[in-house]
Specification:
Low-confidence stretches: 1-8
Shape: globular
Largest sheet: 9 strands, mixed
Structural class: alpha/beta
Number of strands: 9
Helix content: 40-55%
Order of helices and strands: EHEHEHEHEHEEHEHHEHHHHHH
Oligomer: single chain
């Protein structure tokens, strides 16, 4: 019988972006030896300085790991880091738990999970939420689905990165379905936050005063409280970029069409994010959709030059 993960402490994190970086640091704080893999050399240098082992390829990272967290951007990247040249499956031992934290279409998650399981791996469909702050503090929410054995073996690793793990089913796919609905709400809330703040600016309301009032009023949401502050301060440093919601709301729209659901608010928000991306804002914080609305409304928000 294989040794359960709670008695060992080796993990790998593939993709050290906003959420993966926080997960990797949380695992280090919990006493794990952590291999981190990313395509950016400066990020790998920072990870080494933080006490992790930096790896240039997923295969190098996964070789000694009992749990492998995948935090890349989309399903295409996930397939590459798992199954491509230098991918994690080249070195992962049988029974390794793969935690698929990437936001993907449920069908893509299930297809990847089937390939991993066919290779003798355990899989948890484990998309996360909470933003980069919760990731750094080890308090993410995990929307998980997978076998009881996979959850048992990954228990200590999941405890290190999350405040709450929802077990949504015994097969991969259910976690991605719930994350998809979360992203519908998140994307629409960001878009409507941008609309509200732009209208306020156009009518001459002081944005900081408005933000202070609304964040404790009935019209608030987690996204308004978080992204509204970005707009007030004019800080569009990308915590989560515009292009991420082009992808995520694209998944929502595609899956909705597939099952015959009507999602008009998703369609409107997706159109705004796509237009913002086409306007050159794709790599900025997703709150930068407000810049698009501001330009169309003839108003200058904080962080926008008078000529922008």
């Amino acid at each position: 019988m294989e040794e359960p993960l709670q008695n060992v402490s080796k993990a790998a994190v593939i993709g050290l972006g906003s959420m993966g970086w926080g997960a990797a640091l949380s695992l280090l704080r919990a006493g794990f030896a952590v291999n981190g893999c990313d395509v950016r050399q400066n990020v790998l240098q920072r990870f080494s300085q933080a006490g992790g082992k930096s790896c240039k390829t997923p295969s190098e990272a996964a070789g000694a790991a009992d749990a492998v967290f995948v935090f890349v951007v989309n399903s295409g990247q996930a397939e590459t880091v798992l199954f491509g040249p230098g991918g994690a499956l080249e070195t992962a031992g049988a029974g390794t738990v793969f935690l698929l934290c990437t936001t993907m279409a449920p069908s893509a998650t299930m297809a990847i999970a089937e390939r991993l399981e066919a290779a003798g791996m355990l899989v948890i469909d484990a998309p996360v939420s909470g933003g980069h702050v919760k990731a750094l503090s080890g308090e993410m929410v995990v929307m998980g689905s997978g076998s009881p054995e996979a959850f048992a073996r990954a228990e200590k690793a999941l405890d290190a990165v999350s405040a709450k793990v929802f077990r949504l089913g015994d097969r991969p796919g259910a976690g991605s379905q719930v994350k998809m609905i979360n992203q519908l709400l998140a994307g629409v809330h960001i878009a409507v936050t941008a609309e509200a703040m732009t209208l306020a600016a156009k009518t001459g309301i002081d944005l900081k005063t408005l933000y202070d009032v609304l964040r404790v009023s009935a019209g608030s949401s987690w996204m308004f409280e978080n992204r509204g502050e970005h707009i007030v301060s004019g800080d569009y440093t990308p915590r989560s970029a515009v292009d991420i919601f082009v992808k995520d709301l694209g998944i929502v729209a595609s899956e909705a069409e597939r099952v015959g659901a009507v999602t008009p608010l998703t369609a409107t928000a997706l159109a705004l994010f796509r237009q913002a991306s086409e306007a050159g804002l794709g790599k900025e914080d997703d709150a930068a959709v407000a810049k698009l609305l501001a330009e169309r409304s003839g108003v200058v928000l904080p962080g926008m030059g008078a000529g922008s």
